[in-house]
Records
---
Amino acid sequence: MTPLGFRWPWRRPADIARAVDEEIEFHLEARVAELVHAGHAPAEARRKALAEFGDLAGTRTYCVATDWEGERAMRRTERLTELRQDLAGTIRTIRKQPGFAATVVGTLGLGVGATTAIFVLIRSVLLAPLPFRSPAELVVIEQFMPGNPAASVGAMSPPNYLDVKATIPALVNAGAYYDNEATLTGAGVPARLIAPAVTPSLFTTLGVAAAIGRTFAEGEGAPGQPNVVLLSHHLWTQRFGADAGIVGRAIRLDSEPYTVIGVMPPGFVFPVSGADLWLPLGWDASVASQRGAQYLGAVGRLKSAETAAQLSAQLASLSSRLIVSYPESKDYLGLRAQSFTDAVVGETKRPLLLVGGAAVLLILIGCANATSLLLARVNGRATELSVRAALGAGRRRLVRQILTESVTLGGLGGLVGAAIAAIGLTVFLRQWPGLLPRQETLRLGATVPMLALCLSIVAGFLIGIGPSRQAARSGAFDRLRSGKQSQSGGDLRLRRTLVAAELGLATVLLTGAVLLIHAIGQLRRVDPGFRPDQVISFRTQLPSAAYRTSEAIDQFYGDFLDRIGQIPGVDGAAATMRLPLSGGGFGGTFTSSVPTEAGNEEDRRAQVRAVTEDYFRVMGIPLRQGRGFSRTDRRGAPPVLIASEGFSKRFWPATGAVGKSVRFGVRFSDDRPEGEIVGVVGDVRAAGLHRDPTQTVYAVSAQVASSQMSFVIRSRLPVGELIPSIRALVEARDRDIVLDQVATMNDVIASSLGQPRFVMQLLALFAAVAVVLAMVGIYGVVSYAVAQRTREIGVRIALGADQGRVIRTVVRQEIRWAIGGLAIGSVAATATAPLLASAVFGIDPTAPLFQLLAPTGLLVVAAVACFIPARRAARISPLRAIQAE
Amino acid sequence: MTRPPLDLLQGTVDVLILKSLSWQPQHGFAIAKWIRERTEGVLQLDDAALYQGLHRLERKGWLASEWGQSENNRRAKYYHLTATGRRQLRTELSTWRTYTHAVFRVLDAAGLEA
């Protein structure tokens, strides 16, 4: 007997060997008897019989092996036959009860689809190694302000980078780059391309070679060297038709010729946000004075992945040596490193894992629901199953039948899930381009169906365990004898527990979604400091060769803004070097003519933004003190600045910033290092709606000319009408001017919330599915429980109980389970809320009102799902109820 | 006499076993005895080859077996032909007849019948 109470009908190798021995022994004994009868002595007869037999040992081995082979073939056939029967049974079930099958398949499909999609995303964003040689050895090296590490932007100055590269023994190599753009002309429509400048050593550090041609040679990029360029694979195929003879040809960037020296391989992406081409970066000796210029990203390669600790120590000691040598630059001399992979995906990790966790909750809810449905079905078939048991189907056989059914339904769910995942990911890639680092490396491919199928088969087994045990129990004969189906107390308890668990899990998801929706709703209500309605923005880039002088640039922009202002429907036009909420920005520390009132130790930093004189009026940023910029603030006139309210209050809380002169690392175009603050304007949350307003100092663009500007236009015209007329203005003037990044200011705000909004929308979607599943689950269980009690309810009604009372009794009994699940779910939700807060900014995990919202809502849903079957039961006619069994 | 080649021998064993079971189920010892008597000892089929043949044919599905009582009340394994086995016997018999007929025609060349 096996532990399952089932006798194994098959023969084991030992049984076979015993049978073969018995057969041969029978032969020998019969022959011996014959020979003895013929007059041989018994011992002699035995010897003779053995001799006649021939190779006894060999025959024995041969026979045992042959029989065992036959036995195994028989088992296989039998198993296959059973499997075929079970599959046929499953198909019958699906045909007979398409609603049941569709619910199970759909339930599992949603969970499997969500989980598959998220894990494919996690794999390509977080898990796949970066496309460089031994990425674990790569580190990002940053510079920070000693004593205030949090305030630093991380970018390095060239002398610091060169010192690190030359003197740190833990590094075998290092490379540096800065973000840069260039305008490509002469190859189709002029385009503004992402064109980082990189040191030649960057490629050797990353361990990547060119696919065609070569990467930069040492020394290229230094002042006076010829212009060379390295193309990305996509630029080469899209703009140059994958021309194999491209190396050595010249292309025009910013109106100057650059010689193509190579094309990088297709998978090479650097920096992670992607680049169209790379320009060489190098310095001459004059760079030594630039300790304070922070603009480089630096990447180093460790001797081995184990030397990270040594690297930190060596950077710290280099830092202290540099502080001794260059005390005047001490604010720029902190050095630190972090793993390159962490630097790339660090901020994405938590939100993605959070969403992955939510998907797992969803698949668990789906499994609970499917299990409950299968249990109900097994119970409905109790009589059939006990007949089969009586006819000799073992428990194992019944278990296998139910598992075949659940795994088949699971597999179908996997197909649905694979489709959902594929559609979901396609929509994601289209709707949210560039939301996550490296998402462009995501390929749908074979992973999606494989993962979906694996998940769904595991899920199919999981949901089959409870029901198949139930089926094995149905094999008990007493049920068949009594003809009743009422011994389902255990089954009903399991189903109620499952539904309670579903509700608990749904509570966690829904609470998360509510907290996120609330947080994002609050962020949307945060005053950004400007009025975004009716403001449209776009960016232009002047070809630098044609607009070499500040005068030419000023003249173009002044004229361009005037012409835009004359378009009917336009209320104002202005430009800025960088839009708020679009990342980046230029900042630095400053010194002032009048000491700040905040104490000397204070971190004297501010963002510097160049704007045209109408910027504040167009953006709706209020003037608080002093004056705004005017047309007279131009080149040659005394440099003027306008401070943000926060800047003014922070550094001159008593007297205000107006009238103070400050000096930044930047120089004004006519080489005057200092500007006087003439006014104070309202604060703007330029770094993000969830951040405090940025301390900003505005300069007037006429005094710090820049060839690249973002325009803001306040206009009652829709984007579709305004932009073509502006484009016409540009083209009438110069065909080589690039105009791109058209967006309303509201779009700019929305995309600054991209990641949390993405997490919120996914979580809301998951929560909605979870609520529907939980509702279906409760409804199913209550209907079932009520059906079991039809007779009892009929008797009660016959005895005069009114409908309302019957409904109340049923609902009261069932809702207890729901409340239990909700209570546990609320506790779990409270426990996970801090996790949510750490993954997405702006969440207040302690907002009690919003934690109560989800369980309360679910309680209402549960009550409705209980009420409907209860009312149906109460309406039944007593006569029919009593006849029901 | 010289020994026939192994493949011929194996084919011979098979057809002899099938033939010996064509009237009634038998155990191995009875089959061995029957073959020995019928061939009058010309074909020296040893018991080892016979039993290997029985198990091989059972594995092929030409024979089936069950345990029964022997003449002197011992437990013995009785083999019988399956439907496949019976079909196979017919095929093998006709093959053998054609084969021996052809061989005889060569050996008796220019002889009695020509």
---
Amino acid sequence: MNPEHAPLIEMKNIEKHFGSVIALNGVSLEIYPGECHCLLGDNGAGKSTFIKTMSGVHKPTKGEILFEGTPMHFEDPRDAITAGIATVYQDLAMIPLMSVSRNFFMGNEPEKKFGPLKLFDHDYANRVTMEEMRTMGINLRGPEQAVGTLSGGERQTVAIARAVHFGAKVLILDEPTSALGVRQTANVLATIDKVRKQGIAVVFITHNVRHAMAVGDRFTVLNRGQTLGTAQRGQITPDELQDMMAGGQEMVALEGSLGGTV
Amino acid sequence: MSNTADNPVSDERIKQTPAWRKALIRPELGGICGTIIVFVLFAIFAGDSGMFNSQGILNWSVVSAQFMIIAVGACLLMIAGEFDLSVGSMIGFAGMMIAIFTITLGWPVWQAIIVTFALCTAIGALNGIIVVRTGLPSFIVTLAFLFILRGFTIYLPQLIERKTIIGGIDKAAEGDWLAALFGGKILTGLFTWLGDAGIIAVFERGNRAGQPVVDGVPMLIVWALVLVAFGHFVLTRTKFGNWIFASGGDAQAARYVGVPVNRVKILMFMFTAFCACVFATCQVMEFGSAGADRGLLKEFEAIIAVVIGGALLTGGYGSVIGAALGALIFGVVQQGLFFANVESSLFRVFLGVILLFAVVLNTYIRRMITGER
């Protein structure tokens, strides 16, 4: 993180209620360009609700979202995408039956004029897809290859490359590594690192402390709808993070019986 | 990144796929194979029955074209992830509305047709809105409309005209510019020339002696070809086509990247209703009447044609050309059994068998595409 930079996004005291359930109870967060901000928390801590507020899926009940210093009121995900906030969801990033290039340009199809008609520019889409995939280190058999034939890590990478290509300034990754094997996880983490170096802010949601420690610059822990604080890289140990996530007490007892393997 | 970037093409875990097999993995495969088989079979068993002279060709072309018109709508809708079971009832309803507007209310036919199209696409939109708003399966919502529309189609003419078939539309439609677009024929000059040249059969006696037996291409066939071309173009060549695939492939994933999924689905319901309306109008103009039982079971025939054409029932994958081939197979077999002197009830047996076969083949093709095991 570079402290001279102004924050790209400021989330101020965000509250979100679903009926009588208080999912978020005043969460604040700042995200700076070029940082990888890890958002940690156990299941039900409010991580998903929080990022869905950030990406325009939910409207906050209370609180303010500032994007590049101006207050934003996202009506739907489209508004957030237009502003430069892209989200990659774990399972819902890609459509397996469609080709990589159709997926890559889904919702942002390039068009060329053909007389009075506007056509989907397949040549352009195929070319760009191949180039972007090569940059990310994925070798496709062809742009027409169906996404269903890619591995989970490759799908995440395609989704990330897509978001970056379409000018995302903030990239929100919702548990991108939770369903992946060791090597695929390494690939996704390497991709996150590449993206960050391009000056894009990455919000990395995970409940795996080791994955967070591998790429994170700052760490925010959520618990029961509230922030337990934000720590800089080097100011906190993996064990401390783990304890914060689990809410302390019970985890100590558990870890004793498991011999520190968790 | 890791070393995957350094060893590009060869991955020891992936078997080489032969080129012929790649060429085969396309949604139209079943339709293409089926069409070839069907034509070869009937050429052998009914080749000398008149099935392939001008009247015979017209006969099965018209039936195929009817299937095609509704299959195009059903195909795009199925790729967008939804069904419409109200197509058959919509056909009956649309025909009846044209008849009531023309005969009972005395409107000019063009006005009756335009109002009916507007009414039917509005009902299609209503179907779509209910489906996307409630999140109910389209199967249930359109099943309700199957009964609602059929009920009105039987009730209204009885209430107004005290009968279930309203005739006399052909007289009213004479000289009407819009009616000609559905009931007319094109290329009549070419067919007269072909008849004169002795290439196609001509009447030998009667007051039409010397005129060709088949005197033109019915507008029904033109509509079918235009709708197939339009559907194929939209699906494969436009941005909207990508949205159709995306909406059916995974609606939530599509929404997250900004595809207006609800709008796409509602529009596809409207297009399906439009196709049903084209079918109904052509039929009414051909018969000169509208009957309360028109279009029975058409929704299932449309869906079967689409599935034979390689579309997945779960959405997100399919082809308009495939659906058109499915419709062609349908028409050729239905009429061909008649030419081959086979009991026509066996057509239903054929339908069931080919449907089962097509679904199994499609599932296999999908596994090949997505690499599922």
---
Amino acid sequence: MPLAPAAVRITLVSVAWFTDRHFFLLSVMLYGLSMVYSIFLWRKGFRRDDYINYLILLCAFGLHTTAMALRGFRLNHCPVTNLYEATAFAMWSIVAVYLIVGLWPRLRFLGAFASPILFAIGVFALMPSLDLEHGARPGAPVAWTSIHAALMALSYGAFGLSSIAALMYLTQEHNLKLHKIKALFALLPSIQRLEFVVGRLLISGFILLTIGLVIGAYDLSRLDHPHSYRGDPKVVWSALVWLIYAGLIVMRWKFAQGGRRFALGAIGSFIFVVLTFWGTNVLSPLHNP
Amino acid sequence: MAIVVIGLSHHSAPVALRERFAFEEARVPAVLEMLRNARIAEEAVLLSTCNRVELYAATSTEPPAAFDHLREFLVMAKSYSDPLTDELYTLGEPHSVHHLFKVACGLDSMVLGETEILGQLKKAYDVALQHGHTGSRLNKAFQKAFNVAKQIRTETNIQRGSISVGSVAVELAEKIFSKLADRSVMVIGAGDTSEKAARALLSRGAHQVIVANRSYDKAALLAQELGGRAVRFDDWAEEGENIDIVISSTSAPHYVLDRHKVELLMKKRRNRPLLLIDIAVPRDIEPEVNFLENVFLYNIDDLQSIADDYLKQRQQEVARCELIIREKAAALLAGGIPGPRNAGVRPAFGQ
């Protein structure tokens, strides 16, 4: 079986009998636990302080970081060389940003909105066919490629968290429009603050995306035949994603179309990224030789 | 020694009677001194607020006699000569302790779950303590009462939420705007409710109040009272960029703010969130306006129904609070010096 040699290789270089994938599996299980607890918080109307959920996500983050560190030590560079690693990295950056933002009690409930998404992506990432040994890109220096991949994953993390905050915004806005009392007694932040968080995260993601793409372009120019990759699906897709987010930013800041439209835009764009990421990756000879 | 209570409250007596029995703050230590010198009670605390006057005492006299002495004392202290029936209630253990705990938690207040009474009770206890009128019995009971009040505040919802229209408006503003300090309030028209709402917003930090009224003089008057400024009624829309919260209560038969006007206002404000509170009947603001992006319109019914929902929530919590109170009272009475075995002779109204 083609998977067996990869699995054997991974197992051979694990710490004791516990591989980095085991650590990742444990962290995904904790994301699942957090999801279950979040449903309970949601049913209670987000009234109590969410520190238990924060702690669960903190523990999951510890295990997740361990998994990535082990993989990184084994590979001797930043673990973003295949789809499993890239997905795990993107998830990791969502949780990392959440843990910082969640230090403010009012924003802590973002975790309750984030955990179902983290769990879903985590389960997807655990699919064995994503974790294949890949060689380096055709002729490109490994260091720059890793930085490119890491920046892209971080930017998706920022976009992901911004769409989670946007979801929270839409929930609150809906309750306020319909004069529902749960808009008031839920310990969620004001919609203006949520809009601010969505905007800042989106801009951060966009900056990371831009730098990541620039590095990617530089990387590309160092290849033997860079122009042959001009029509590469992933390259075209990346330009499209960049344009979509640029458009969102212009819509928000130049044309003052904030609020609901902006939140829906943030969520829609991220869903588009999530749905098309792996497909274009597989189709791209540059990323999937 | 047993803890007893004698007093009257808004449950048992109208305000005309309550004000006859109210004690000035400055007189309280002297009254307590008189009470203890007359050997009616060994320890005493006097609580006098606009809604209740109550004397909490620890006495070794048997309750029926103790109640008579206390009643006589109160009537003499206030030179009250008219007949009294059940306006003055008396409670012995354990009901006296239950009552103390209930009062501390706001369960006996006119506004269920209000928190002001705890501060007033603490002050009354402090005054008695400083003048040496309390002993171990009342000290333990009052400390326990304060702890129970804290526990109930954190563990139940009895004190959560706003039950007046003005404070609901403030809560809404805090859920929409990130910082109330940068927000301006515009009051169009006049009225008791709109003034209360504006005051509530100001007390929570709103930046300024602008008042508009058909009569400029009235506007100026209200603006002065609220520490804001007045504008001519026809010019209020010019303030566009400055307005974040509008409280409207004119007697106009038509819409003062229709969809078109609000759209223009939003454009001027670059679509920042806008809170509109319509207290008028007939309504001042076209209801369709709520469909606009980033506009939140609440009329008086909406605010009142939120306040009612909160009150209902508080009422649902009462049973849970009473359970906690009974537990803690039983613990206090079991652990303390054994008092007389018979319970209160006449329970308080509403118990």
